[in-house]
Amino acid sequence: MYILSPSILTADFNCLGDQIAQTKAGGAEWVHIDVMDGNFVPSISFGMPVIRSIRRGTDQFFDVHLMIREPERYVGVFADCGADLITFHLEAAKDPGAVIAKIRGEAGKKAGLAIKPSTPVAAAAPFLDRIDLLLVMTVEPGFGGQKYIEASTRRIGEASRLIRERGLHTDIQVDGGITRDNIDTVLDAGANVIVAGSAVFSGDIRENVRFFADHFAACSSRMEDCS
Ligand code: DX5
Ligand code: ZN
């Protein structure tokens, strides 16, 4: 029910495979992979060859976050590289419905839709019944290590209400500035897939992942007690 998706953007690329293995050893079943094109966002990160290479080293679920323009052009290649979930930005696509259809239909992968902090949550509403995950960005996309934008808490709540009102079970992912200190804020607001970069890759990776895993387990059992 609660999922941690460690963002490798802040990993040490000199030993990337080993660092990913440490997230798995700590209990992470997902890996968050940030692809940036230097156009939709100012920065350039990495692309297909890196994903193909790390795919050979782990069976973790590959959560690929595309921060690129014209995402429809790249759905097939990222699917072939080993993505399990392909998330693209609403702001970057001319026809978001067509991109979703391509991800789910042609590529046979899970589809995620991301919205920047300045995009109204309501803009994602028409697509909620066709996606697996809604990514509510909690920082401006482009860089790891930024501070959580406080106004995001209200936006997560709004997304959660929209999804529940429609009787859907779409996952709500948050990404950017998530730490041990604000994890409860985003969980309470309704997020269930948590991306963490710096909070996982600074210090002891395994211990950091375990912290989140234990925290999620405690939250889940608390919820069961209440039902
Ligand atoms: C930002 C990326 C994030 C980033 C998160 O554009 O989408 O995934 O790596 O890193 P932290 O957790 O350090 O904010
Ligand atoms: Zn991301």
End-to-end C-alpha gap: 15 Å
Which strand order spans the largest sheet, edge to edge or round the barrel? 1-8-7-6-5-4-3-2
Specify the structural class: alpha/beta
Strand portion, in percent? 15-25%
Structural overview:
This protein is of the alpha/beta class and 227 residues long. It has one domain (3-226): Aldolase class I (TIM Barrel), CATH 3.20.20.70. It is 37% helix and 19% strand. It is built from eight helices and eight strands; from the N terminus they run E-H-E-H-E-H-E-H-E-E-H-E-H-E-H-H. The chain has an eight-stranded parallel beta sheet. Helix 1 (16-26) packs parallel to helix 8 (205-226) and helix 2 (48-55) packs parallel to helix 3 (75-81). The longest helix is centred in the last third of the chain and has 22 residues, at 205-226. It is globular. The model has no long low-confidence stretch (mean pLDDT 97).
Short summary of the structure?
It contains 8 helices and 8 strands, in the order βαβαβαβαββαβαβαα. The protein has 227 residues and is an alpha/beta fold.
Question: What are the salient characteristics of this protein?
Answer:
8 helices, TIM Barrel, eight-stranded parallel sheet, 227 residues, alpha/beta
Fold blueprint:
Blueprint: E1 3-6, H1 16-26, E2 30-36, H2 48-55, E3 61-67, H3 75-81, E4 85-89, H4 96-106, E5 110-115, E6 133-137, H5 152-165, E7 171-175, H6 183-189, E8 193-196, H7 198-201, H8 205-226
Parallel strand pairs: 1-8, 2-3, 3-4, 4-5, 5-6, 6-7, 7-8
The protein binds D-xylitol-5-phosphate (DX5) and zinc ion.
